[in-house]
């Protein structure tokens, strides 16, 4: 099976963009059956370049993650399996990597992982790994370049480093304003941001992961394409030249949207917040808005240099496919229009040349 980094390079050489999907292991047997059916539907609707399968908080779904990863491969999809340091001993990592190798799964997302459920602070497992950098170094040392390794990137800063800085974002630097979160909590305006000095340390750490052998970066969610654009520029400025893949979270339910953005301390543009609030009680209208927003952000991301579009599907297919189809149709129409204009310009030029020759 090919490595994702090679597939991305081939697409870039051909001037083609692409989509990829992320899924998580369901909690029930019926949920698993439903998800496998979605794999097939989504593959047939628009073939993804690859599909992520998450590891589960605290390593809680590691066996199911592996099972679903192998099911993806058997169905002709390119799996990109998450592997975390949380509640995972070194021997478990060794076993997981060997199982992937035995089954020709060549793509891994190396992550620190979230704390186990009910535990606020992340702690390393005895005999395990301290962070994603350790995991990347270990995989490279043990397996050379067999695996394509992706790592996480945080355009707004890691949630652990985003702090309350007052109530006035105009006091922030220009770069801080591209990633700050502004909220109204019980009538009190609050501004949260990863300060520039801390953000630089995050970029330094990301550079270490890439220097240690990471082949690609998949970003945390965001709802402002300019935030991704600023992060991409910051990566290049730091000498990080691997593909930076934007992770796109879908808006499908107001409650889920608010919960996720609050947990991750995500910047939410005022226009997006107002639209979600206005449609919160109208499920059909909110989902339609989610598709429109996803299409808009997708076009903006491709315009600022994104290599492709990575969708956090939430294990649902309709919204993801609606966005992917509209973006593909829009871009096909745009190419057709450009080709027509080019042909028309050439024809007009030829007509002028013929006219000039006749005058002679």
TrEMBL record:
Keywords: FAD, Flavoprotein, Oxidoreductase. GO terms for biological process: methionine biosynthetic process; tetrahydrofolate interconversion. It comes from Pelagomonas calceolata. This is Methylenetetrahydrofolate reductase (NAD(P)H). SUPFAM superfamilies: FAD-linked oxidoreductase. GO terms for cellular component: cytosol. It holds the Pfam family MTHFR. Its cofactor is FAD. The keyword Lipid biosynthesis does not apply. Belongs to the methylenetetrahydrofolate reductase family.
